[in-house]
């Protein structure tokens, strides 16, 4: 099933029609890489070339885009890679990044949610009105905002999955309706200041200046990646599937360790680890586990791959679709609270169309397929990091916002074209 391949890493599974014995033949008994007669590094390089030619690009395009972006802007302004600017980027990505994580769930179904920007603005307005105007306890105002986001997502999911209205139409109507309701809730003033004290304010203002925490998190992420990769390898070997050689697992682990410890050093050199970034990473890691390691997550991938096959295999398609839209609405509300924390206010421009575009663009640029069935929550993190890096770099070199939109649009178009070409290549090689 295509969805199962995506959940387990389509780039590592054997093509349809290959037997277990042929899969074993592709890897030496000692776990070495490559084909028979091509051991060691040459075999590994050839396997990488085969994966690229067959359209299994993984995170390579977005990582290359990010590195190119950083190199270009650092060459134009030496402050771009300064600890202060990188720390600011780490906080700025959280609000739209959380919204993008919710979008991932819907995109994996092969659908789209155009209402998330308006939902984030509306839920932020609900929080501000309850907390500031009516004196409701902050925790209760936060819970109310989150429940409103979940309810909106559930309603839209039911209209799509149960009634049969196309998701594009449902969420486009939501974009207009929830934005209008936000303006109504805000009232004549149009803007509500939430202040710089309280839980929501701390979301963006709280930092943990602790080397033990920073480097401990880096070590934890590196170790966790290695353990999970090693366990997956053992499970694949037991199932008679192709496996990675140990040295390649170590190499990939190093690819996680370098940016992790580099980020720890940079953040600790400024104000420490931002609370906002910690919360973002918890959501990304936790929901990635849900998508990759649970029956529910595999059901989302399966529906995105082939909805009729998923239905015949016993997956509750209606419930899964509704829950994905509910997740999107809930994370839109969470992202709205972080955006409110960042600017300390809610106004008529909250939940703008630009926010919606950036959230969807982040997921797609990060590697989530518009055709469904392929992508992870890490895609949202990488994609929003590219977008925010472009925005930050443009500000530093004094380029107009209009140019920023054009550059981001070009990057998005490139990601979609690459996704289409990758899908076509996989179809040619029998992997789509």
Characterization of the model:
The protein is an all-alpha fold. It has a domain at 60-193 and 295-428: Orthogonal Bundle (ABC transporter involved in vitamin B12 uptake, BtuC), CATH 1.10.3470. The protein is built from 19 helices and four strands. The chain has helices at 2-8, 20-25, 40-53, 60-76, 83-92, 94-108, 116-133, 138-163, 167-186, 199-205, 211-238, 246-269, 275-293, 295-305, 307-312, 317-343, 353-365, 377-396, 401-428; strands spanning 191-193, 207-208, 273-274, 345-347. The protein has a two-stranded antiparallel sheet with strand order 1-4. The chain has a two-stranded antiparallel ribbon with strand order 2-3. Mean pLDDT is 84; it is low at 1-39.
